[in-house]
Amino acid sequence: MPSDKSKVTLQEINEKTVRSICNLSVTDNQKQFVAPNAVSISEAYFSKVAWFRAIYADDDPVGFVMLYDDSEKPEYYLWRFMIDARYQGKGYGYRAMELMIEHVKSRPNATEFTTSVVQADGGPQPFYEKLGFKLTGEYDDGEAMMRLVLPFPSC
Ligand SMILES: CC(C)(COP(=O)(O)OP(=O)(O)OC[C@H]1O[C@@H](n2cnc3c(N)ncnc32)[C@H](O)[C@@H]1OP(=O)(O)O)[C@@H](O)C(=O)NCCC(=O)NCCS
Prior knowledge:
By secondary structure, the protein is an alpha+beta fold. It has 4 helices and 7 strands. Coenzyme A (COA) binds near residues 83, 88 and 124.
């Protein structure tokens, strides 16, 4: 069983692990905030801009993340993000997002990391605010847009 001190990593999904990632799930109330992982992986299969990874705590799969990665644009969009209900509240989501921020910083032309949130009780907006994301005031498909401005890479 992973603990609060477990090392969080982002790992590629393969034929052996895909079932365990599809079996990860959020609470019933949180299902309004994120699509099931099986749906996200299916969408990624048909997308040229989806970059996705499983989130691990030591050797256990605990979550899933998917990025809209279009290297021609300065904006990288966090498309899906979830930590399984059994593993929430242990800091894994925060640490996985720190890894995602480092990943986005390493991508061509990246100056902004964006996401969108459903503004409902228990929604993830305060979580993203802790990481420095701010509401932009824009809405997309009923979801509030949030943005983290990344420092420009040094020369
Ligand atoms: C949002 C989510 C990814 C957070 O993952 P997590 O591993 O539970 O978060 P952490 O334990 O790393 O929490 C980091 C901090 O954010 C806070 N936090 C996490 N989720 C929060 C929420 N929904 N509301 C308020 N604060 C929250 C924690 O209390 C913690 O604060 P602290 O450092 O002051 O103690 C997870 O709850 C989840 O998968 N939710 C359902 C799916 C979802 O909403 N995905 C986002 C789609 S845009």
